Amino acid sequence: MTFDTIDADRPLKGVVVGAGFIGGQWAPELLAHPGTRLVGWVDVEPGRARAAAAKLGLERLPAGTSLTAVLDGEEPDFIVNCTVPEAHHDVTVTALERGVSVLSEKPMSVTLGEARDMVAAADRSRRLFTVNQNRRYMPDLVAFRRTVAELGPLGMLASEFFMPYKGAEFLGVLEHPLLQDMAIHLFDAARAVSGTDPVAVYCESFRPPWTWYPGACSAMAIFEMTGGVRYSFTGSWSAPGAPTSWTGGWRASGARGTALWDGGSPPTVSAAAGESLKAHRSEPDPYPERPGRFTGLAEGLAEFVDGLRTGSVPQGECHDNIRSLAMVTACLESVRTGTRVVI
Fold first, then answer.
1. What is the CA radius of gyration of the chain?
2. First to last CA, the chain
3. 133: alpha, beta or left, given left = phi > 0 and alpha = psi -120 to 50?
4. Any idea which fold 139-284+325-342 has?
5. Are 284 and 266 a contacting pair, CB within 8 Å?
6. Is residue 201 classed exposed, middle or buried when 0-12, 13-18 and 19+ CB atoms within 10 A define those classes?
7. What are the boundaries of each domain within the chain?
8. What is the mean pLDDT of the segment spanning 58-79?
9. What residues contact residue 48 under an 8 Å CB cut-off, 6+ apart?
10. What is the pTM (predicted TM-score) of this model?
11. DSSP β-ladder status, 12-17 and 78-81
């Protein structure tokens, strides 16, 4: 977890890689942060990065299809990897091997083997490699995490995610669309909320008869976590009513009581007999002057920049975030084998 810091008395130079929806959200963050400067944009589709830059009034911004050309020409301090998950490994390793730090969208990679290779590349280059799990910065989730910390020894944590979603074409080609795309958000949140890490899991992924997905869009998993905590996950992309929030619905039970969070409002708490508990309040939006922003990007960028300057370790640093990815890959292995998988 050792990486080199940057002492240069200037804004840190960043390149956005990927000009799709999320790349278009990250570029304004680099423009808004007083300590960063956007110096390039890359996308594999010819003209796409240049068109995205022009929409922001950046007609002169270096843009193109070659990552190595922009890295060599602009010599950035970091990239923001906004490519599709299948490209995360190659883009990240290319940057790290050139001495460029990486702030990446989730998931770290498609396979655990690729992720291990990426972490090793970060170690060799002594560069910071972080995966931005944007939901960790949601004010209500932070309040829920702080409330759960008041429950004493934790016994059980449960989350549910039910959504009748038809909006993303790429989900239709995945064998297990819920586990392969959405689940990591809840798995990573479970780690953040409980302060525990995965030990083993048993998981089933299946396809209800009414679904519009060709793949197994529903899943149930039981994780053993460190300290003996059990975390259960239940969800579906084909919920026929009563959807949860996009952050899911949560319940945590500890020695002193139970905390509830519906994913869309502040958490509540119910104390055990003889105990007194109070739910933590959600902090106000730190960027009220920027309505409609994609939650968690500015906060993740701020932590990343602070890490590059001071050596402090951001949330999502690769040695930690790989554990969230391991929860996904272990679920898929459990589905394949029909057995409990040690992580």
1. 20
2. 21
3. beta
4. Dihydrodipicolinate Reductase; domain 2 (3.30.360)
5. no
6. buried
7. 12-134+295-312, 139-284+325-342
8. 96
9. 19
10. 0.94
11. parallel
Amino acid present at 296: G
CB 223 within 8 A of CB 198: yes
Q: Contact 100/90 with Cβ under 8 angstroms?
A: no
Give whole-number Cα distances, 19 to 22, 85, 335, in Å. 7, 14, 34
The residue assigned the tokens 């039910």 is 162
At 47-59, the pLDDT tens digits run 999 999 999 999 9
- For the residues 191-216, what does the mean pLDDT come to? 97
Residue 320 is inside which H or E element, if any?
helix 318-337
Burial grade of 72 (CB within 10 A; 0-12, 13-18, 19 or more): exposed
Taking a C-beta distance cutoff of 8 angstroms, is the pair 88, 108 a contact?
A: yes
Q: How far apart are CA 89 and CA 86, in angstroms?
A: 7
CATH entry 3.40.50.720 includes domain 12-134+295-312: yes
